[in-house]
Amino acid sequence: MSNIDYGFNIEDVLGRMMVATRSRSLSKMGELLGLSINALGQSKQRGSIALTTLLKCQRLAFEMGNEVTLDYLVHGDGEIVIRDVNEKPRDERYASIRLLARLSTEPPTTVLFDKEWLSTWMKVKSFDSLLQIITFDRIYIIDTNERIIKDGGLYVFGWIDGEEHSSVTTIRRCKRNLAGDITIAGEEGVQTQESLGKIGIIGRVIWSGESELDEDPAFR
Predict the structure, then answer these.
(1) Total-model pTM
(2) How many other C-beta atoms can be found within 10 angstroms of the C-beta atom of residue 194?
């Protein structure tokens, strides 16, 4: 797979991970992250690395007093922020998005996202409208302000009742024609905005992260 361009240099990624975790060697970093040297070697050979591994690295770095973003680890954008280990994350820099549903134990907590990235690249106007879903191989960010079905959009269906109760029924791609008829991938028949509203539209998926960063992060 040496002819595939993943958009980042795996050697640089591992190097930044070592700096973030204050590791003097790849084997030491693997020990801290619970990974064997063989597993890291396979990542180097593939030229890709699991998102869960990056999240573990980010969390470990934070526990050591280093604030790093995923953009820094993968692409080298930004810098490491040194802080007191007793400090809380800088609220002005990060958005803690409410967890809507979890189908995986990794990562064990919700993920902090850079507010500037959300505003600039995701065009998010209100962080309070965002939710996240963690599955076995993806992390989804959903904007609850976007409930009007648009052609080609990925939507989360279900219901939310207050802060503690919610139910996610499915995440499906939707198509909408000029007449306003809506079809849902994997479902028979035609729906309307009104009929889907009765089923429950939680919001539109604006971003999702693969378990392996070897593709564009947009869901396909």
Answers:
(1) 0.57
(2) 8
- Of all residues in the chain, the percent with pLDDT exceeding 70 is 78
**What are residue 209's DSSP bridge partners?**
139
CB-based contacts of 219: which residues, under 8 Å, 6+ apart?
138, 140, 154, 205, 208
- Considering the domain 89-212, what is its CATH architecture? Ribbon (2.10)
pLDDT tens, residue by residue, 192-205 = 999 998 888 999 99
Return d(Cα 131, Cα 125) in angstroms, integer: 14
Query: What topology is assigned to 1-87 in CATH?
Result: 434 Repressor (Amino-terminal Domain) (1.10.260)
Would you list the domain boundaries of the chain?
1-87, 89-212
- HEC readout, the chain: CCCCCCCCCHHHHHHHHHHHCCCCCHHHHHHHHCCCHHHHHHHHHHCCCEHHHHHHHHHHHHHHCEECCHHHHHHCCCCCEECCCCCCCCCCCEEECEEEEECCCCCCCCCEEEHHHHHHCCCCCCHHHEEEEECCCEEEEEECCCCCCCCCCEEEEEEEECCCEEEEEEEEEEEECCCCCEEECCCCCCECHHHHHHHCEEEEEEEEEECECCCCCCCC
Q: Tokens 């050697």, residue?
A: 11
Amino acid at 4: I
What would the two tokens of residue 23 be? 């590791």
